[in-house]
């Protein structure tokens, strides 16, 4: 077989292979960047009850700084305290700060100090305890948020909020009285009182 024929045959086969590859379904690419979300995404409580919301991070790219502000109805909910999560790690290279002094918001900063490499993966960055104040519904949302890598370059960030429903206490039913047959007592009169009148 001549070289020209070999080349044509190889080109034809390569074209068939390329066409077959194009026909194969491509694997879907997952979303990149960072997603920050609240868990659970819906909470149902009674007035006066205490509940927790976890701030979680799912990072497909390295992230080193996650400052954010949570906003909520200050007449519906109040923050009792916060607890640091371990997503960025522990020790002196991690700085986690929270300011909950203003009603209706929680300002939180989470950073790796210095030139520490960013963190990938899924984990909890903060846990917040709330008290329900009155009946009603509202959202806990990310009012301001950003994600930065170790060089302070922005990383794509997506957020998801959480819904809180504060229901009125259930009415306590009154205890049912036992059913008793009603019986009119028989009245007894002395003999002669009800004698007919004489004409």
Describe the protein.
The protein starts with a helix and ends in a 33-residue tail after the last strand. 11% of the residues lie in helices and 42% in strands. The longest helix is centred in the N-terminal third of the chain and has 21 residues, at 3-23. The strands form two sheets. The protein has a six-stranded mixed beta sheet, with no helix packed on it. The chain has one helix at 3-23; strands spanning 34-39, 42-45, 50-63, 68-71, 77-84, 94-99, 105-112, 119-132, 136-145, 157-160, 162-166. The protein is built from one helix and eleven strands. With 199 residues, it is mainly β. The chain has a domain at 36-162: Sandwich (Immunoglobulin-like).
Task: Write a brief caption for the model.
The protein is mainly beta. 11% of the residues lie in helices and 42% in strands. Strands 2-11-9-4-7-6 form a 6-stranded mixed sheet, with no helix packed on it.
Kindly state the mean pLDDT as a whole number? 81
Share of residues in helices = 10-25%
Order of helices and strands: HEEEEEEEEEEE
Task: Please give the count of helices.
Answer: 1
Largest sheet, order of strands side by side? 2-11-9-4-7-6
Largest sheet: 6 strands, mixed
CA radius of gyration: 36 Å
- In the CATH hierarchy, the architecture of the domain at 36-162 is Sandwich
Oligomeric assembly: single chain
The CATH topology of the domain at 36-162 is Immunoglobulin-like
Distance between the termini: 152 Å
Portion in strands: 35-45%
